[in-house]
Amino acid sequence: LSKVYIGSGLTGIGRETFSGSKGMSVFLCKSKPTKIGKYAFNGMSAGSNGISEYELDLSQVIRFEELAFNSAAFLRELVLNENVEFIGSEAFVNCSNMNGSIIIPQDCVVSYRCFNGTNLDRVIIRVKEGETFNAPVEMFSGAYGTLTVIFDGPALADKYFFSGRSNDYKTHVH
Fold first, then answer.
1. What is the sign of the dihedral through the CA atoms of 103, 105, 108 and 109?
2. pLDDT tens digits for 83-121?
3. H helix or E strand, kind and range, residue 110
4. 89, 120, 141, 146: which one has the fewest Cβ atoms less than 10 Å from its Cβ?
5. Under DSSP, is residue 114 helix (H, G, I), strand (E, B) or coil?
6. CA 18 to CA 24: how far, in whole Å?
7. Alpha carbon distance 134, 26 (integer Å)
8. CB atoms within 10 A of CB 5
9. Which residue, 69, 67, 33, is CA-closest to 51?
10. CA 128 to CA 61: how far, in whole Å?
């Protein structure tokens, strides 16, 4: 399987749909799925032996199950829907080419090591008024580059929140 074209109408990408796909060079999806299943894009590479062209609009996804994009090197950026409800454990673990900024909405449940091993440079975490954000263990551990995390309300993060980061990090509570 070297090329995948998905038209409109797809509402979700299920468990292990493309897990371990090797040699796929093109992945174009015209749909805007609302759910990405466990291991859906597990281990999909980028470059000469992997995806060189892709289109995957994740802006309508409300659930990213655990390990959904585990080691998916083709993923370069992420735009989270303001209604995203859940980001599972290690959903984006080792997506080392994923960079830029993300905003995590106030009602989103984030899980253990969800952004471990990414290259994000700025994260804003919305905190519901009157509540405290309880950061999951190792949420950003093992990530690359300099990362700024901004909490727009009270937050609790344990000592392992940034553990194993290869460079600098900054946190701000507003």
1. positive
2. 999 999 999 999 988 989 999 999 999 998 999 889 898
3. strand 109-110
4. 146
5. coil
6. 10
7. 39
8. 10
9. 69
10. 20
